[in-house]
Amino acid sequence: MSRSLWAALLVGITGVYFLAGRVGLEFFGLLHPNASAVWPPTGVAIAALLTFGRGVAPAVFVGAFLVNYTTAGSLAGSLGIAAGNTLEGLAAAYLVTRFAHGREAFDRALDIFKFAALAAIASTTLSATIGVGVLALEDPAVRTQLGAIWLTWWLGDATGAMLVTPLLIAWQRNRKLRAPAARVAESALLLATVVTVTATLFFSPLLGRYPLAYLCLPPLVWAAFRFRQREVATAVVLMSVVATWATAMDKGPFVMATTNESLLVLQSFTAMIAMTTLIMAALVQERVALLEREQAALKNAEAALRSSDVFIAMLSHELRNPLSAIAAAGELLQRPGVPPETSLRAGRIIRRQTVHFTRLIEDLLDVARITVGKMTLRREPVDLAEAVANALQAPLTDEVRAWAPVDRKLEHVWVDADPHRLNQIIENLLHNALKYTSRLGIIRVHTYQDGGCGVLKIDDTGSGIAAELLPRVFDLFTQGEQGPDRAHGGLGVGLTLVRRLVDLHSGNVEAYSEGAGRGSTFVVRLPLAAAPAATMHPAGTEVPIARAHSILVIEDNADARESLRMLLEIAGHAVSEAANGAAGVEYALTQEPSVALVDIGLPDIDGYEVARRIRSAKPRIRLIALTGYGRDEDKERAHKAGFDAHLVKPVVMATLESVIESLLGERDSARSRA
Q1: Confidence band (pLDDT; 50, 70, 90) for 542?
Q2: Nearest to residue 269, comparing CAs of 255, 254, 280, 281?
Q3: Which of 17, 347, 406, 656 has its CA 20 to 30 A from that of 609?
Q4: Integer Rg of the chain from CA
């Protein structure tokens, strides 16, 4: 807010406070010229301080000083009373902000109780006590009526806080006046009813003698059930104005021995009515909000149920396809007289579909890990251009086997990333572009630095993204329209995984498309990292040549055990096998193989216990967990049990042999040093 606007605000608050105070003291300063049973300025001060902060306190102070000094106060006395009034407002604003959600105090029933206790009851004692104390010091005659003046002062302030503060806050928060015609008509009828009922009860000579003031409540209940706090506060203030006018004229059900006493009883009544109706309105709105949340939750649950049905159908389709291809290729390999080249093609089909199958499962598991906060990153400086180049060399799955031309513009830029997860991000985005772009289209891949980020930009001329789908393109299981053949395949998981992995890296990913058939662009931004010092392999370093080893396979699944044994034997290893944990431990302790490949989910004792028993008795045996459990906590548990390595099924044979050679090489090096 500019200085001129701020100055205008301060002047406005001072003026409103002064005018409200003059009305209070001029017409209702009956017991003492400086004490009124009707004191709206307290509500003005609290509302201003809650809305604009402590910076408006000087305006409250000046307004309070001018009111008292121009009425009947001395300079010193007016300064003291103004200090008390200002302190009252500051205390109320602080307590309400601290304990009752500040300006939102009238949205919840419990906070309205807190406002009444902290602002209307507790804070107003400061102004009453300081003000009456100042008056007693200046005029000893005041001491004879000290209690009555204090009660008048305090009750006037408390009622002002309870009536005026919610009125001003509600109108400041919701200044919109436009509404449907029926709503406007109902509002006008409500306010007219409030005024009419109150005037009848308080001004009528016949009804004024009877205690019928409670009949003011039904129209206010109408307001509480049909409208919000703004209309309720307005209706209560209108009722109070009419009732106060009548009571000041010694009319109505609250006429007592003196007019001041009548006003005190009326103020107690209106304060209680205000608190009751405000709480009632808050409870109604809380109930409405609860019903809306329940309805939204029900809609979300129904949508989730529909999504789960669609997902199960998609999953069934996506799993049956690779399984069908694997089954057909396996059947072919069992036929006699199959030509060698046909066997090789069948083997490639099985391998390719296994990779596809594994990728589906890994993507689902990764999304689940991120969702429950179980995924950890091992970040290091990574050359983004090199990572993209490596990803472009990866073999294609069936859906994208027909490459679209790829235009590369790869600038070397180092980012702070987990290499494995970065590769997942790149592969999923490339896979998405290749899947939706025909051979007649083109894909452009660009890496570059932009400010403090490394940027990967992939855009294509493929099928694009429909406008209604674009805002949800990263949502789980979201896909474009597909026919029954599901030609593009997939589960709608890849882009979700991309977004969540990028978020874990403190980066961001955005998607752009001009619509269906007009291509799409994905832009990933990751934090930069300093380029590491150049590293070189020592001269003469060679890839180690695999040697024959004695290997024990502990696996309860007969087919998995047999197929792994055949692969290892073809590689030249001497292989033994055990179908359960106890047999595996017994063989390992008696025969002492070089390596034991151990499944975790064994029928008698699990793989962790197998590892512990072998490790304690034969520490030289290298233990490799070969399992379907691939979470980070599974790897940590395997390490604690004594495993030297942890591999997730299905394992690539080259990877398994590399791990075996690495473990045995480390063991032999350690023994030679010893």
Answers
A1: very low
A2: 254
A3: 656
A4: 40
